[in-house]
Amino acid sequence: MSDGCAPIGIIVNPRAGTDVRRAVSAAANVTVEAKANVVRRVVLGAMEAGANRFVVQEDPHSIVRRATETIRGIHLDWVDEVRVFTEEDTVTAVSSMRDRGVAVVVVLGGDGTNRAAARAWQDIPVIPVSTGTNNAFPVFVEATVAGSAAGHLACGLCGVDEVSSPAKVVRLRIEGVGAEPPLHDMALIDAVAVDDPYVGSFELFDPSTLKLAVLARADPMSIGFAGVGGRVEPVSPEDDAGLLLRFGPADGCPTVVRAPTAPGHFDDLGLAEVRRLSLGEEVGVDGPVLMAFDGERKRRLGGETRAVLTVQRDGPRVVDVAAVMAAAVSGGAYTR
User: Fold this and answer.
1) Which superfamily does CATH assign the domain made up of 169-312 to?
2) How many angstroms separate the CA atoms of 104 and 124, rounded?
3) pTM above 0.85?
4) Bridge partners of 28?
5) Which CATH architecture has domain 8-166+316-330?
């Protein structure tokens, strides 16, 4: 092990892959044991690359402790902050990881977990490993390989800037009378205006309640709103553009798309408008309306409040694991 390696942050959302959407759609369940196994593989991969220092957070199921209790030579630096058992725990942990100089953060979760991490650290160098429900942002990579890439970055094989670029995100600015702080928010994939009374609901979105969506990317290989947009106007992560979807009744719209709004669940969605957005182009949403970010209802706007949405390329730096591993191979990391 090299004492000169920087620490690696590991975020595990114990609730990712376990919410009520397992009951209302065909989403798969991700058990505590499965998450512990993923963490163990990440750690072992990183240690093989020479890194043995990790900044981690305790969770109610002791996932990290279970994963690492038999691993020798590991050093765990625990985030010692009061937990509130919401996504704010992730925000707190990632803020601490940034302050402690981690080289990269491996996030185990879905779009919501990664959004919380990005709220704490705007250009976070991240390897997002998919374990949640909405998985448009995380990548599907074997955990051992993800850990190896994190270890190589921590030990200075290559710089984060060499193997990553800023992701597009949807930025939100709140204006108007009665606007409550925070006046800025963000989504990694989609921000959706919906006529729904329940903040925090995990029920499926009723197509009749959908008003408008601004997407940072649109991919027919995805589910959720990224998948909806991708079935009419694909927008790749590399495109310097976003996508606007304006919804309406299916029997009165020029375009109707049938798409999976949740795993295994399809709906017919009427689209009154589909339009590409330039980076920085503003889209206004007037209240009263509920805003959902990355598939989760989060914020209600009052009748005299307005949200301004833009797609910007100033988000997390998602590490290209393949590029890191190619650099390791070309540098002879795996041959003697």
Assistant:
1) Probable inorganic polyphosphate/atp-NAD kinase; domain 2 (2.60.200.30)
2) 8
3) yes
4) none
5) 3-Layer(aba) Sandwich (3.40)
